[in-house]
Design a protein that fits this description.
Blueprint (H helix, E strand, L loop, with lengths): L8 H9 L8 H11 L4 E4 L4 E3 H17 L7 E4 L5 H13 L2 E4 L6 H11 L1 E6 L8 H11 L5 E4 L9 E2 H5 L9 H7 L6 E6 L9 E5 H15 L6 E4 L6 H13 L2 E4 L5 H11 L3 E3 L2 H10 L12 E5 L5 H11 L2 E8 L3 E5 L6 H6 L3 E2 L3 E6 L12 E7 L10 H8 L8 E9 L5 E6 L4 E3 L2 E3 L1 H8 L5 E11 L3 E10 L7 H10 L10 E4 L14 H14 L6
Parallel strand pairs: 1-11, 3-4, 3-5, 4-8, 5-6, 6-7, 10-11, 10-12, 12-13, 13-14, 24-25
Antiparallel strand pairs: 1-2, 8-9, 14-15, 15-16, 17-18, 18-19, 19-20, 21-22, 23-24
Helix pairs in contact: 2-3, 3-4, 9-10, 11-12
């Protein structure tokens, strides 16, 4: 049994008593959906369309196939795949077989992937042989030379290289899985065991392996369903990567209400809009950079988007102006969430929230999760004051796999008294709505005045010439620090510092917060999840550049 690091029986009993958890396993829910709606379409990507009955049968086959390959309960498989039906086939099959599953971002290369394989003690991997110019199979074989326990190599391609096995051969049989039902029931994970790993974004080095139970997955999904009022009649367009928090969380939401999920393997703005039109999507899960590109690079009027009623986004800056523009252009409601892989959503807006609150805050604390905002001494701050955001609750992780020290550092203690330190600076208003103002480690202090990068970045997101903007602090001999704005412009657009400061003045930004230096980049360095800007690396690069220009500039 994969015992959760920080989850206690008292916590399990408490979440059940309060209605946030129950005793149904992921396997139980899949079997129930297949019995209730066997012919209802549930999963779609560019190559595959499956009903609930087909999903039940294929996951049985994959579960049995993995066990026949010699995998044992609580062993791990690492999957590095585009967001696809294959990803979710594997995830559900692993729940049935009692095998730990970890999704790796497609951006991982040798060092990161080797770290994850070693940390999870994986004995198997599933990858494409080659995808978008990268030979993933060769990379995995190189890793196996240093990690001999890794000895099962599955690929998604029809042309299978020597030494590999076809994933398709697992779900196509030839297994009589009816005879394996009792066997799989003995193997399947209970909702209170560690059943899969998520990965941290790696802001302090290599990513950590974050434990989640079936119960925390379910709670994370139900909260979204409640706030968005999802039903089995909705069609979910899940274009956020499954290797990240938003994509996976929205899958667990659709899974539980019985809604169809449509996946996009490789994002482009037009492919996403085509998916919405073709599949009649009613609920779209997207990260902010995807929405920004759809707004700025595509002609939305070319597509029939009339079925959309909700867009859910989060994971990065998304200011009220841009949220309002998204609502206007897509003609639907925008829900904004904030969270991390350790907490899924710590706050989530809902369709019934007042428009001003939906667009300007993260909504109220997520169902089943609690938040607390404290000062540097750990004391709760007053309503409206800025402090450090702490989270605990039913949708949060049970700790870092194989790393008790890191778990204690993040939560403070084992059990229900532990609060996860998000590293975010936040405030909560009289009505309970939460707003993030920035990261504590990224706060800029200019002449003794605190400047929160997130405030400025939120304003700049709506600049018509900007694709992305990041605010960092650089050294200043007189003021201590000053504000530098790093930007990637819309293709073909030039931009000056004066244009940016004039724009921010018009938005009402205080003079002491205005950027004093501009850096234009073709692209930003990203963290290992491929979704968030690596601000540490970016700041180091810019400070080195400033220092090289001479001390008079510092």
């Amino acid at each position: 049994m994969a015992n959760p690091t920080r989850l206690t029986q008292d916590m399990i009993d408490g979440y059940i008593d309060r209605g946030y958890w129950d005793k149904l396993s992921i396997s139980d829910i899949l079997r129930r959906n297949a019995e209730r709606s066997p012919d209802k379409e549930v999963l779609v990507d560019s190559d595959t369309r499956l009903t609930w009955a087909e999903l039940e049968n294929r996951t049985n086959n994959v579960a049995v196939g993995l066990l026949k390959l010699g995998m044992k309960r609580d062993q791990a498989i690492v999957a590095q795949l585009p967001s696809s039906v294959t990803s979710l086939l594997l995830l559900l099959a692993c729940h049935k077989a009692g095998i730990l599953c970890c999704f790796s971002p497609m951006t991982f290369r040798y060092n990161e992937l080797k770290h994850i394989v070693k940390t999870t003690k994986a004995v198997a991997v599933l990858t494409p042989t080659e995808y978008r110019g990268v030979n993933y199979f060769n990379m995995v074989r190189e890793i196996a030379r240093d990690v001999p326990e890794l000895n099962i190599f599955l690929v998604t391609d029809n042309d299978v290289p020597q030494g590999a096995l076809s994933f398709r051969s697992l779900y196509e049989g030839p297994f009589k899985t009816d005879s394996y039902q009792k066997y799989l029931q003995r193997k399947a994970f209970s909702p209170f065991e560690v059943s899969a790993f998520a990965l941290s974004s790696g802001t302090t080095g290599m990513p950590k392996c974050i434990e989640h139970t079936g119960a925390s997955f379910k709670s994370a999904g139900w909260g979204v369903a409640q706030r968005a009022k999802l039903t089995e009649d909705d069609v979910i367009g899940n274009i956020a990567p499954l290797s990240g928090g938003p994509g996976l969380q929205n899958w667990w939401s659709a899974f539980q209400v019985g809604a169809k999920t449509c996946l996009l393997e490789h994002f482009t703005p037009d492919k996403a809009l085509e998916l919405i039109q073709k599949e009649r999507v009613s609920y779209l899960s997207a990260i902010p950079t995807q929405l920004i590109r759809m707004l700025k690079e595509s002609n939305l009027d070319r597509y029939d988007l009339s079925t959309l009623r909700v867009i859910r986004t989060g994971a990065a800056a998304f200011d009220a102006y841009l949220a309002a523009e998204t609502e206007q252009r897509f003609r639907c409601k925008v829900l904004i969430a904030g969270g991390s892989m350790e907490t899924f959503s710590f706050a989530q807006s809902g369709v019934d929230d007042p428009r001003e609150k939906r667009l300007r805050t993260l909504g109220k604390p997520f169902p089943g999760n609690e938040i607390k905002i404290v000062d540097d001494d750990g004391r709760e701050v007053s309503v409206g004051q800025i402090g450090q955001l702490l989270v605990r609750g039913a949708a949060t992780s049970s700790g870092y796999y194989g790393d008790l020290d890191a778990t204690l550092a993040a939560w403070g203690t084992i059990g229900n008294k532990g609060w996860f330190k998000t590293g975010d600076l936040a405030k909560i208003d009289e009505q309970g709505y939460v707003a993030i103002v920035g990261r504590k480690k990224q706060m800029i202090i200019r002449g003794g005045q605190n400047i929160y990068p997130g405030e400025i970045e939120d304003l700049l997101v709506s600049h018509p010439k900007l694709m992305q903007a990041v605010i960092i602090g650089i050294p200043d001999l007189v003021m201590g620090e000053r504000v530098c704005v790093c930007v990637t412009p819309v293709p073909g657009q030039g931009l000056t510092l004066e244009e940016i400061t004039s724009f921010l003045r018009e938005k009402g930004l205080a003079i002491h917060k205005l950027p004093e230096r501009l850096e234009v980049l073709e692209q930003f360095p990203t963290l290992v999840d491929g979704q968030k800007v690596d601000k540490i690396s970016l700041t180091k690069k810019i400070i080195e550049k400033v220092m090289a220009e001479g001390e008079d500039n510092v």
